[in-house]
Amino acid sequence: MPKIWEKHRGYKVARAYADFITRTCFRSLRVEGLENIPRGSAVLLAPNHCATLMDPLLQMQIPGPIGFGARSDIFKNPKTARLLRWMRIVPLARERNGLAEVAKNFEVFKEIIDCLDHGMPFCMYAEGTHHPAPGMLPVKKGLFRVAKMASDQLGKPIYIVPIGSNYEDFFRGQTRVRMRIGEPMEIAREFARREGKTEAEIYHELCEQLRERDLALIGGPMPRRQGPKVLRVAGAVLSLPLFAVCAAGALPIWLPYLLIMRGMQDKAWAHTVRFGLHFALPLFIPFHIGFERLVNFYRNLF
User: Fold this and answer.
1) pLDDT tens-digit profile of 28-68?
2) Distance CA 120, CA 141 (A)
3) CB–CB of 5/120 below 8 Å?
4) Cα-Cα-Cα-Cα dihedral of 224, 230, 231, 234, to 10°?
């Protein structure tokens, strides 16, 4: 397999299709602050993590190839591992996987640093797990350790770019999502500013700083605008025939979605499952979009 920063055959076409499908899952998808990503530099993207695979799909709205880290247990199947590496994803073990697995991360860190050295951004979720709720879990220091290792080994600026993703709803489709990209942090400069402090104190402060920046970028709930209720009721009545057509046309998507989600304990996979069905059944997407938007319209009415 080629290295994750190298050219992967078929990646551009698949990436364009995946980006298109991602946008079909939401009523609106806004990306703000692209100008804050240093171009032609070594960049670590540091978003919050709340919607499993949909989060990296959202970060892929940033132009150009991006590397990602994912939990190591999903790489056990060799065929799956090859597919994930083709998608520029490398395995990162968590503490719960045991010390032996965590020790393997140092080899992966070398690959991440190699990726940064060749100018491809790498995305790491500093919380270590997803959290489908407002706010953000505490940030872990692994991201900053990789950045410091890269800075020491490469001898060039390593930038950490905070990103805040705000989902209007963590589970329902055809809602709004916004991704804000903040001003970068240069790791060598951040360490120099804290000269005289212990390494533990520096990592603690950096973790708190990144969390504060991500939270500011996430922001609060998105305001919802609604017209007069009389007009909304009239619109609901008039839209019933259209709803019937959309429901029938979207059946191959929404019925499997209900069955899959019924068997899942972690409901944070809702957006990801929806993406997968759109990806596999593109002909039914227009019907499903209409179906979900009308369902949301009726739900908000009552």
Assistant:
1) 999 999 999 999 899 999 999 999 999 999 999 999 999 99
2) 22
3) yes
4) 120
Domain that holds residue 281: 229-301
- Phi and psi dihedrals of 71, rounded to 5? -60, 140
Residues 188 and 107 in one domain: yes
At 175, which CATH number? 3.40.1130.10
Question: Counting beta carbons within 10 angstroms of the beta carbon of residue 215, is it exposed (0 to 12), middle (13 to 18) or buried (19 or more)?
Answer: middle
Structural contact between residues 170 and 270, judged by C-beta atoms closer than 8 angstroms: yes
Across 232-262, b (16+ Cβ under 10 Å) vs e yields eeeeeeebeeebeebbebbeebbeebeeeee
For residues 249 and 285, what is the distance between their CA atoms, to the nearest angstrom? 9
Residue 19 burial by Cβ neighbours in a 10 Å radius (0-12, 13-18, 19+): middle
Residue 223 resides in a domain: no
Q: What angle do CA 218, 257, 83 make, to 5 degrees?
A: 75
Do 189 and 254 have their domain in common? no
For residues 58 and 165, is the Cβ–Cβ distance under 8 A?
yes
| Residues 167-196 pLDDT 10s | 999 999 999 999 999 999 999 999 999 999
Show the tokens assigned to 70: 């994912």
Q: How far is Cα 149 from Cα 120, in angstroms, rounded to an integer?
A: 17
Q: Examine the domain organization and report whether 49 and 193 are in the same domain.
A: yes
What pLDDT digit, counting tens, does each position of 93-144 carry?
Answer: 766 666 666 677 778 889 999 999 999 999 999 998 888 988 899 999 989 9
Model confidence pTM above 0.90 = yes
Is residue 125 within 8 A of residue 55, CB to CB? The reply is yes
